[in-house]
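Bug report

Summary: structure tokens for RDH11 dehydrogenase differ between web form and batch submission.
Environment: batch mode, default settings.
Steps: 1) Submit the sequence below via batch. 2) Compare with the web form result.

Sequence submitted:
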Amino acid sequence: AGIGKCVATDLARRNARTILACRSRERGQAAVEEIRAATGNPAVVLRLLDTGSLASVRAFASAVLREEPRLDVLVNNAGVTGLPFAITSEGLEQTFTTNYLGSFLLTNLLLG
């Protein structure tokens, strides 16, 4: 939704293979279908990613590196606000992990 969806739509309009990294399969798939319909680009795909989970970030990065021949652009757009204080299963504060640590780890893992 929002800025991320607008960026993904613009990339798809430019005929880029576009990977939507989403927490929700249902919302992500709806966005994929909407972007495909709006742009005519069938190379828009969904991959599940929760930047609030470093295990999810590692699994996503591993799959991208294994499945994609190259990665030209990475847009780190995940973020949350207003959540109650919570600790992840990895012992980290949820908002900080989602907004900063997850994106930082993802970027570093994908640098290759």
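Above is the batch result. After comparison, the two runs are identical; trailing whitespace caused the diff. Helices lie at 2-13, 25-39, 54-67, 94-110. The chain is about 50% helix and 10% strand.
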